[in-house]
Amino acid sequence: MPGQFLSTSERDRLARFPTSLSQEEVITYFTLTEEDIQQVTQQRRPVNRLGYALQLCIVRFLGFVPSDLLSPSEEIVTFLADQLVISSIVIADYGSRVKTPSEHLQSILSYLG
Q: Among 15, 113, 112, 13, which residue's Cα sits nearest to residue 56?
């Protein structure tokens, strides 16, 4: 019988967004480029722009989007919202249309190639 590479708790930890990031990690992985902003601003509503940007940066950072998309810290959401000049509180409404996050993810994956 093959052994397990990771324990259950280790696999669970890798499937979630980290509970804390350094300031350097936030700047490195959550700063939007001009091309990113052009992509993000194709979304009509502020909530969708912020949600799209959040998913884009999470994919770059983790290589996947955790099932609890809204688990990143307020600091990260605010950092992205400030770059887009929108209120960070709108993120609470992201995904009110169930298909939106998955449609955004498909667009992001296409954008990133």
A: 112
1 belongs to a structural domain:
no
CA distance 69 to 53: 12
What pLDDT is stored for residue 84 in this prediction?
97
Rg (alpha carbons) of the chain, rounded to whole number: 15
Tokens 């019988």 belong to: 1
Residue 2 placed within a domain: no
Query: By residue range, what is the domain housing residue 38?
Result: 21-112
Torsion on CA atoms 84, 17, 22, 51, rounded to nearest 10:
0
**Domains contained in the chain, number:** 1
Residue showing tokens 């490195």:
28
pTM equals 0.85
- Kindly state the percentage of the chain with pLDDT values over 90: 64
Q: Is the residue at 14 inside a domain?
A: no
Among 55, 28, 24, residue whose Cα is nearest residue 39: 55
